[in-house]
Specification:
The complex is a heterodimer of chains A (about 220) and B (about 120).
Chain A (H helix, E strand, L loop, with lengths): L1 H6 L6 E6 L3 H11 L5 E7 L4 H7 L3 E5 L7 H11 L4 E6 L4 H9 L4 E4 L4 H12 L4 E2 L1 H18 L4 H11 L4 H8 L3 H15 L4 H10 L5
Parallel strand pairs in A: 1-2, 1-3, 3-4, 4-5, 5-6
Helix pairs in contact in A: 3-4, 8-10, 8-11, 9-10, 10-11
Chain B lengths: L1 E5 L6 H10 L3 E6 L4 H7 L3 E5 L7 H11 L4 E6 L4 H9 L4 E4 L4 H13 L2
Parallel strand pairs in B: 1-2, 1-3, 3-4, 4-5
Helix pairs in contact in B: 2-3
The chains are: A alpha/beta (about 220), B alpha/beta (about 120).
């Protein structure tokens, strides 16, 4: 036993609480956590159970956000209110950057995908107990690549073209954009042609999609 | 019984291997998606597939699996407890459909029954 603990370095015992609506998934998660002798699952519930969480005060709340009856923010907030010192590890099958951003903005300590290897999940739990944060590297990587692509293409846009991109994404016609910016419709049309070439898209709708995907507009 | 396990969510694989083993299924291969060639190559007697989160949806995947392994027992596993969804799975080729909302005991009982009737 001492040898096991010594080989685990300065890691500490971790008390976990699982929020998961599907009974068999709870069993599967318990099975994964049983692989680490330092982990103990102190409770589980099909939805955020503030009373139980407040009573048990676990080190980590594993929160499955797929199929939640409330928003991600509400669920994380309820966990935090019930046990402020607990860290929330969000578990999801959603490979979406927006979902990950929402979870981490709502103060989750980790966003873990369900296709993550069990051994990695154990490492992540230890890391967040030690005060670290975790964002799935595949989603984070895709976000950075998109940002990098945006900076290359968007940096070629003039400030006037940038403004026109925003207005196109808002659904304005060339005439309406001209009225808004005090430009002739023909001048706006020329700007749109340049924007299409710089963003390497062929249609006006492509400009709008680019603007939304790259956060130029909400 | 030689079994091929399809589970896109890696986190569940160790648990499912254990439960299947207890019920008498010998998992000879696991995969995160439907690969007809790989399924045929392993020639399994049973295929256990988690139909949630599969590309192109569970019923379509079941049709593809059935094409790849015509005589294998095809067991679907889903978060859904909806009878219509279960019926769609059966029409698409599943021999049995289990819900993740059921407990381990119920799953084990059903799996053992599947082995016994094969």
């Amino acid at each position: 036993m001492n040898g096991t603990l010594a080989s685990l370095g300065r890691r500490h015992a971790v008390r976990l609480f699982i929020v998961e609506p599907h009974r068999l998934v709870v069993e599967a998660l318990r099975h994964v956590y049983s692989m680490d002798p330092l982990f103990s699952v102190v409770g589980d519930a099909p939805a955020v159970d503030s009373e139980q969480i407040a009573l048990l005060r676990p080190d980590v709340i594993v929160l499955d956000i797929d199929g939640l009856a409330v928003t991600i923010e509400e669920a994380i907030d309820a966990c935090e209110s019930a046990s402020p010192q607990s860290r929330v590890c969000v578990l999801s099958a959603q490979h979406r950057s927006r979902t990950m951003q929402r979870a981490l903005s709502a103060k989750a300590a980790a966003y873990v995908l369900k296709d993550t290897a069990p051994a990695t999940i154990i490492e992540i739990i230890h890391a967040i107990v030690a005060g670290d944060y975790y964002a799935d590297p595949r989603i984070a990587g895709a976000m950075l690549r998109r940002r990098s692509t945006r900076s290359t293409e968007a940096s070629e846009l003039s400030s006037r073209e940038f403004e026109i991109v925003r207005l196109i994404a808002d659904g304005l016609s060339n005439r309406e954009i001209g009225n808004r910016l005090t430009l002739s419709e023909k001048t706006v049309k020329n700007h749109v042609s340049h924007i299409l070439a710089k963003l390497k898209v062929t249609a006006r709708s492509g400009i709008a999609v680019y603007a939304v995907r790259n956060g130029i507009v909400n | 019984m030689r079994t091929y396990l399809i589970e896109p969510q890696t986190i569940f694989v160790p648990y499912l291997r254990r439960v299947l083993s207890i019920a008498g299924f010998d998992v000879v291969a696991t995969s995160q998606g439907v690969d007809g060639g790989d399924i045929s190559a392993h020639d399994p007697a049973a295929i256990f597939v988690d139909v949630d989160y599969l590309e192109r949806g569970g019923p379509t995947a079941l049709c593809r699996i059935r094409d790849a392994a015509r005589s294998a027992r095809l067991i679907a596993f889903s978060e859904s407890s909806d009878a219509t969804f279960a019926a769609t799975c059966v029409i698409s080729g599943a021999d049995a459909v289990f819900s993740k909302s059921d407990g381990e005991e119920k799953l084990l009982r059903a799996l053992r029954q599947t082995v016994a009737t094969t």
